[in-house]
Amino acid sequence: MRAKLNIEAEVAALGDLSREELAAQWERIYRCAPPKGVRRELLIRAAAWHLQAKRLGGFSTETRRMLRSAIDRVEKKIADRDSQANVVDDDIKVTNAQKRKQALPGTRLVRDWNGKTHIVDVIEDGFVFEGKIYPSLSSIARKITGAHWSGPRFFGL
């Protein structure tokens, strides 16, 4: 019981540490700097978890095995997606960055232009704007502005 009270007091004391002290603790625990912009609350929780795991024991062997398996599945999915994204077709290389710019069906794009809000819904075969289906965002941007625009750029993709 006494050990539990000591841990509770130590965890509570983490809230009194400065962000710099918490970041130093993170570096000591994880052997790297905390991610840029990480909030103080996350630094406190990470330090608290590490303290409790050190004193009371961390994950069980089974939990570690399950986490490792889940990580392996996610890494395999990412590797498969990356290898499929780097396809060369007619001397045009499609990269992940380019692929991410495509809006998925069901997405709603909103753009204010000259005081009017324009809404575009993404569907499987194109884009719906003002009740009509368009093959590209650029054709919609041209209709809205009267000038040639990159549709993805106009809609902030």
Distance N terminus to C terminus? 56 Å
Assess the beta-strand content as a share of residues.
15-25%
So what's the overall shape? elongated
Number of domains: 3
pLDDT averaged over residues: 83
Tell how many strands the DSSP assignment holds: 6
Number of helices: 7
Described by strand count, sense and barrel closure, the largest sheet is: 4 strands, antiparallel
What low-confidence regions span 5 or more consecutive residues with pLDDT below 50?
A: 88-92, 94-100
Rg (C-alpha, Å): 25 Å
One letter per element, helices H and strands E, the order comes to HHHHEEHEEEEHH
Helical percentage: 40-55%
Identify the strand order in the major beta sheet.
3-4-5-6
SS content category: alpha+beta
Organism: Mesorhizobium tamadayense
Protein name: DUF2924 domain-containing protein
Pfam families: DUF2924
Record keyword descriptors for this entry.
DUF2924; 54% helix; 4-stranded antiparallel β-sheet; 3 domains; 7 helices; 6 strands; alpha+beta; DUF2924 domain-containing protein; 157 residues
What's this model, at a glance?
This protein is of the alpha+beta class and 157 residues long. The protein has helices spanning 2-14, 19-30, 40-56, 61-85, 96-100, 137-145, 151-154, and strands at residues 87-89, 92-94, 108-113, 116-123, 126-129, 132-134. The protein folds into three domains: 2-56; 61-94; 101-154, no CATH class.
